[in-house]
Every structure is written in C-alpha cells, then in structure tokens.
Amino acid sequence: MGELHVIDHPLVQHKLTIIRDKKVGTQQFRQVVNEIATLMAYEVTRNMATEDVVVETPIAKTTQKSLTGKKVAIVPILRAGLGMVDGFLELIPAAKVGHIGMYRDHETLKPVEYFVKMPTDIDQRELFVVDPMLATGGSAIMAIDALKKRGAKQIKFVGLVAAPEGVKALQEAHPDVDIYVAGLDDYLNEDGYIVPGLGDAGDRLFGTK
Ligand code: URA
C-alpha cells in the first residue's frame, strides 16, 4: 500500500492556510503555492541516495556525503500541476520536467488524457508527479497509468490538499506509489470539490474562471 505522508511542518501548514482563504488573489496564491512546493520538495527528497566522496577543504582532506546523482523528473499534471514546478526546481534545478495533460470532464468528472511529453529515460528516473488537488484521484491514477505504460518504475505523488476518497482510490490503483500532501481534508462534495479545500487550484493559479 502506498504510504500517505501529511507534511505537518508549521511553515507548510501556515502557508496552506493562507492559500485556502478565498480573498487571496492570483499573485499571492501562485507565490505561496511555489513556496509550499519547495518545502515539500525538501521532504520528498529526504531518502535520496548519497555516497561517500573525498573533498579537500582549505584545512584538510575529508570524506563526506554527496548525492549519487540518480536522475529525477518532475511531472506536473496540467494545468494546475504547473504551479508546483518552479518550487521543486528551486531545490532540484537539474531535474527534467515531463508534462502530462489531463482535464476533468465537468459532466462525468472523469479525467481525459490529451498530452504526454516525457524525458526519454523515465524508466531510469525517480518521478515526482505533482498536482495540487487529489480529489477523486482519477487524474493522478490515469497520469500514473500513462507513466507506467511508458516504463516508469519509481513514482511519488505530491499534492497540496487531498480528499480521503482520492487517497483511497490512488492507493488501491497504485499501491507502490507513496503520496505526499500538505493537508488531508474532509470529503468531496457533489461537484467534485474538496471540502474545505481551496477551490479550483488551476483557476486560482492562473486567474481564470
Ligand atoms: N480540483 C480542484 O482544483 N479543486 C478541488 O477542490 C477538486 C479538484
């Protein structure tokens, strides 16, 4: 079963509370989403592999830790996932970025795939699939299906807010994928919005309606 990690760091919680407020406008929303994404990137990279390397300081030769250089890629689910990319790149500037386009059909609430562009070697990379809202789980499940179909083996899902329904669906569909979110909310309403949530993340990030 994919583990659920709710990042309860005070800075993350504080910033999540800021963007839940409906009075917060596009510019601040975007800025704070980026900040949360950076903090979450710090948490989700906690287990990155390191190796011993020798470094010569001005004082002495010493053996210290360095990343093994295992390749990673950030995979935003379009469009709202884009809001988390720059925050991740702050900490992992060399990461490749794959894009996966899914939209939610407003009638059926089901995700539809319309665009997939990945680095060629996703089978050798650790992939961070980012999407602010894990609602029904449909988009995340389909995005991860699409990545696995192309050879991906190591995937983590990173979001801001999840509904219990989405967590359960994702864990059942992809038990090998760990889930990282800043908040686990109460439920999904009949319109497919997370309650209390923060509204439509894509619209709030991009100033659309
Ligand atoms: N997508 C959003 O942007 N918000 C929700 O509450 C649910 C899905």
Automatic annotation (TrEMBL):
Catalyzes the conversion of uracil and 5-phospho-alpha-D-ribose 1-diphosphate (PRPP) to UMP and diphosphate. Pathway: Pyrimidine metabolism; UMP biosynthesis via salvage pathway; UMP from uracil: step 1/1. The keyword rRNA-binding does not apply. Pfam families: UPRTase. 5-phospho-alpha-D-ribose 1-diphosphate binds at residues 79, 104, 131-139, 200. Signal peptide: none annotated. Binds 1 Mg(2+) ion per subunit. The magnesium is bound as Mg-PRPP. One of its GO terms (biological process) is uracil salvage. Keywords: Allosteric enzyme, Glycosyltransferase, GTP-binding, Magnesium, Nucleotide-binding, Transferase. Residues 6-208 form the Phosphoribosyltransferase domain. This is Uracil phosphoribosyltransferase. The gene is upp. GO terms for molecular function: GTP binding; magnesium ion binding; uracil phosphoribosyltransferase activity. Its EC number is 2.4.2.9. InterPro entries: PRTase-like (IPR029057), PRTase_dom (IPR000836), Upp_B (IPR034332), UPRT (IPR005765), UPRTase/APRTase (IPR050054). Uracil binds at residues 194, 199-201. The keyword Glycosyltransferase applies. Allosterically activated by GTP. CDD domains: PRTases_typeI. Belongs to the UPRTase family. GO terms for cellular component: cytoplasm. It catalyses: UMP + diphosphate = 5-phospho-alpha-D-ribose 1-diphosphate + uracil.
